[in-house]
Design brief:
single chain; 254 residues
Length: 254
């Protein structure tokens, strides 16, 4: 059976198949060569595997900064490297997190009980906010990098589209990628054969209460391997911003 016959059921000679095949050059090809026509989800999975294999040669520094109302509340750096088992390992680096602010002292002795109660309430609110911010930060890694199996599942459910674009740009949109109602969009410049945009519209807990926008800026290493240089996640309703920067890539043994 020819390659075309194998996937003709859904994608044969369709614009969708052609556009997704082009997008796969980003997601994220190592050698810049366009893969042969095939099922879009399978092509994306193959391309992701190729790029992941190339990234395993590298170690880098991941810097995560969490801000609340414009003030940095937490910053940490981790050394990222792939282990022999192929899993990404992250080791915290010392001295990256800012010192925590001391809790305000309670008032006079005659109100010790009430002062302590108020202090407990404040501490609980702070802890709740810390947990929430950590949950927001964790959401970044649910979308970056994109998981081929999730894209394939969305395609099977009819939630993947690639309408005609303008100026040589096509956009692959994946709905219900991770959560019901979210949307992941990958823009690809078919002329330059490179990623033009990567955005996510999602939410932390409730779509109407804490909608999230996520944008990714990709860069290329000298050998053509693509990596997320910066990820910016914004929860406007809570005034929380998470910025993840990856830098200092070095090949093993270099």
């Amino acid at each position: 059976m020819s390659p075309i016959a194998q996937y003709s059921r859904h994608t044969r000679r369709s614009i969708f198949a052609v556009s997704v095949a082009a997008l796969v050059v980003f997601v994220v090809s190592v050698n810049g060569q366009t893969p042969p026509p095939q099922d879009p989800a399978a092509a994306i999975k193959e391309s992701l595997a190729q790029n992941a294999k190339a990234l395993r040669q590298y170690s880098w520094i991941e810097t995560t900064q969490i801000s609340l109302k414009g003030e940095v509340k937490k910053q940490e750096q981790k050394q990222a490297v792939y282990g022999a088992d192929g899993k990404l390992q992250k080791t915290p680096l010392p001295g990256a997190a800012p010192a925590a602010k001391p809790a305000p002292e309670s008032g006079g002795g005659g109100r010790r009980g009430g002062g302590r109660l108020k202090e407990n309430i404040v501490e609980n609110k702070v802890e709740d906010m810390k947990e929430y911010m950590e949950k927001v930060a964790a959401l970044v890694h649910e979308y970056v990098p994109p998981a081929p199996q999730k894209i394939q599942a969305a395609q099977a459910a009819g939630n993947v589209s690639a309408p005609p674009g303008t100026g040589g740009t096509r956009t692959l949109t994946v709905k219900n990628y991770l959560k019901e109602g979210d949307a992941l969009s990958i823009g690809f410049d078919t002329t330059a054969k490179k990623l033009s945009s990567y955005t996510v519209a999602s939410y932390v807990e409730k779509p109407k209460d804490d909608p999230v926008t996520l944008t990714v800026t990709f860069a290329l290493l000298p050998d053509g391997t693509a990596y997320p240089q910066q990820v910016l996640l914004d929860v406007k309703a809570k005034q929380i911003v998470v910025k993840v920067t990856n830098s200092g890539h070095k090949k093993a043994g270099a």
